[in-house]
Design goal:
The chain is of the alpha+beta class. The chain contains ten helices and twelve strands. A five-stranded mixed beta sheet has the order 3-4-5-6-7. Strands 8-12-11-10-9 form a five-stranded antiparallel beta sheet, with helices on one face. Strands 1-2 form a two-stranded antiparallel sheet. The longest helix has 31 residues. The mean pLDDT is 92.
């Protein structure tokens, strides 16, 4: 029992009959008014076609405490579910509602399924309980957190580790088709673009970034030369030629006309920092696309994942 509820009981015990009844009635009124405020926000979340109204309703509902000392509601969504509803509504507003919103049996808890994936894979949000706030988009079977979102701070961060583990190790390497995987990736990437374009979110696409200017920072600050040598060997075995990187210490490989992967030591501040870049004329290919479509590059990356793994934002992904 909270301190306020204990104080309420103490006060009620010393009140007259009239005072007790008045306190009880006011408690009911306040609880019902809180419920009406909640339903008004739900109306906005469900019906609005205005982006800022949608975001504002989701922000409030994600932190809303519906029950009070006098009024409890037996049927209600969890705070994490409002992130999921917000995501579904935003996708629907852009005619891109690919994930299906389902509810858990015997509860109102919500989750996403993608028609391109097996029903074994379900997605929901998990709210961060510490002072940072926000929530992770979480695949429940594997436990992978694909991205982190903070509605108030307008922040979105994708997680390279989770995408590699889920879509390559768990799906691609066990028979799921690239087209099926890309259908899901396209929706998640689109969600990031909607947040950035509609609301000005700060979005880090991480391993999914197709911008030629993107520098994917590797986990190993000082890359062992033997790992680069392994790429020389496997490239030659598949009839590709590695060249010295134009940035100095490193190597580059042209996978098809105009599609160049460059691995080099980027030292703008004097400290070793190995990075990967992917350049293609249309800026449509990310490093993750390379991993999906070029087996020998994927094998090299996975075989040396402890050093080559693309770093995600360390503030939200430990």
């Amino acid at each position: 029992m909270s301190n306020n509820e204990q104080q309420t009981e103490t006060d009620a015990a010393t009140l007259s009959t009239h005072g007790k009844l008045t306190m009880f009635n006011e408690g009911l009124k306040n609880g019902l008014a809180n419920g009406e405020k909640f339903t008004a926000l739900m109306d906005q979340l469900i019906e609005t076609t205005d982006g800022e109204t949608l975001l504002g309703a989701a922000q409030q509902l994600a932190n809303f405490k519906l029950d009070s000392a006098y009024v409890t509601f037996p049927h209600q969504y969890q705070n994490a579910d409002y992130y999921l509803i917000f995501m579904s509504r935003l996708l629907a507003m852009h005619q891109n509602e690919k994930p299906v919103l389902n509810s858990q049996r015997h509860s109102e808890s919500l989750f996403h399924v993608f028609e391109d994936l097996s029903d074994d894979y379900t997605f929901r949000f998990e709210v961060v309980s510490d002072a940072n706030g926000g929530a992770y988009y979480h695949e429940q079977t594997t436990g992978e957190n694909l991205f982190y979102i903070h509605l108030e701070r307008r922040l979105l961060r994708f997680n390279s580790t989770a995408f590699t583990n889920l879509f390559i190790n768990k799906l691609l390497l066990k028979g799921t088709g690239i087209d099926q995987i890309n259908a899901v990736l396209t929706t998640l990437i689109a969600f990031g673009h909607y947040l950035r374009n509609d609301f000005g979110f700060n979005v880090d696409f991480n391993i999914l970034d197709v911008d030629n200017a993107a520098k994917y920072e590797l986990r190993a600050a000082d890359l062992d030369r033997s790992i680069v040598d392994k790429l020389f060997v496997t490239a030659a075995e598949h009839d590709y030629m590695l060249r010295n990187s134009q940035h100095g210490n490193g190597a580059e490989i042209e996978l098809r006309d105009g599609l160049i992967v460059d691995l080099f030591n980027n030292t703008p501040d004097g400290q070793a920092r190995w990075v990967l870049t992917v350049h293609d004329p249309q800026q449509e290919v990310s490093w993750f696309d390379v991993l999906l479509h070029f087996d020998f590059m994927r094998d090299w990356y996975l075989d040396n994942i402890d050093a080559l793994e693309i770093k995600a934002d360390p503030l939200v992904f430990a």
